Amino acid sequence: MTIGFIGAGKVGQSLGLLFKEQGYSISGYYSRHGKALVLDQRLSQVDIYTELDKLVGISDVIGITVPDDQIDRVVSELETQGIDFSEKFFFHSSGAHTVESLKKLSNRVFSIHPLMAFPNVVSDLRSFDNIYFGIENLDVFIESGLNLKITNYFGIQSELKSKYHAGAAIISNYLVAVIDFGLSQFMELGLDADEAQKAIWPLVSNTLDNINILGTKKALTGPIVRGDVGTIEAHLNALSKDLVPLYRALGQYTLQMTNHQKLVHKKLEKLLEEDDYDKDHNINF
Ligand SMILES: NC(=O)c1ccc[n+]([C@@H]2O[C@H](COP(=O)([O-])OP(=O)(O)OC[C@H]3O[C@@H](n4cnc5c(N)ncnc54)[C@H](OP(=O)(O)O)[C@@H]3O)[C@@H](O)[C@H]2O)c1
After folding, report:
1. Are 278 and 285 in contact (CB under 8 A)?
2. Rounded CA gap, 243 and 187, in Å?
3. 220 with 141, same domain?
4. 33 lines ligand 1 (CB under 6 A)
5. Which among 101, 33, 37 has a CA at the least distance from the CA of 64?
6. Per the database record, which ranges form the DUF2520 domain (predicted)?
7. Which pLDDT tens digit goes with each residue over 221-276?
8. 58: pLDDT confidence band, cut at 50, 70 and 90?
9. Which residues are CB-neighbours of 276 under 8 A, at least 6 positions away?
10. From 136's CA, which of 120, 195, 198, 281 has a CA 20 to 30 Å away?
11. According to DSSP H, which parts of 4-128 are helical?
12. Backbone phi, then psi, for 150, in 5-degree steps?
């Protein structure tokens, strides 16, 4: 089986490296830059194609690893070739888009989304060791034979794809945003960025380890789970006014993870939800 890629970016090259290491044959990459494209040196023996039909013609499985918004454009370009691609397998690697548009080319379509962030082409393939792949059209993926070496995967129903991608984006992107939010408070203490990051890192990694070992609910510590109303009040007073809604939104979500007695729960809920609380308690924003 040969695998070709349309799109030689971070994911296209990383998946190419992974499949190559697993013993699959990489037929080539299509690139609009032609020979000017510089592939990772571990792929230096792989051919580069400037004509889509040639790359597709010599490949059994074709990965369309272009940005999400370009997938439909590539499909249209392939459609205009007027070639019968129905025997080929096509996949894309978008976690957000369904495979619907790929069906214009063939019924043998699936998507394979690595639950991993790729800021660059992977330098060490061991990064893939524990990675899970979310797969749409799981039966076609298995039929393609690509599952023979990839063992960590699960199926996603097309209609739930946006929910799946929202979950992944919240975990990956918003975790970064939440850490930045916390760090912004440390910066106001006069720490420089490097010092602040060093100071918080053990807290971050220890929290992640706790989640990994105990699960989210049992890993939760701090004033909301303890029911320390006064501490929350102090936080609300300390934060700048523009950050209070975000603190409250995160606090409300955190509160519903806890199991407080009714009275404590009500107090915390009021503090985290009601704007009127600010007026009643003279919080000076
Ligand atoms: N990066 C991540 O963390 C990550 C994680 C999981 C899944 N994904 C998914 O993986 C896919 C690719 O993302 P990426 O991060 O690898 O993107 P990327 O690094 O920007 O690479 C995209 C590649 O597609 C090529 N391309 C763009 N438009 C094209 C077109 N119309 N025809 C042919 N080639 C075209 C680009 O070439 P040019 O140089 O010619 O523009 C580039 O080589 C997306 O669906 C994304 O959602 C990404």
Report:
1. yes
2. 15
3. no
4. yes
5. 101
6. 152-254
7. 999 999 999 999 999 999 999 999 999 999 999 999 999 999 999 999 999 996 75
8. very high
9. none
10. 120
11. 10-21, 52-57, 71-79
12. -90, 115
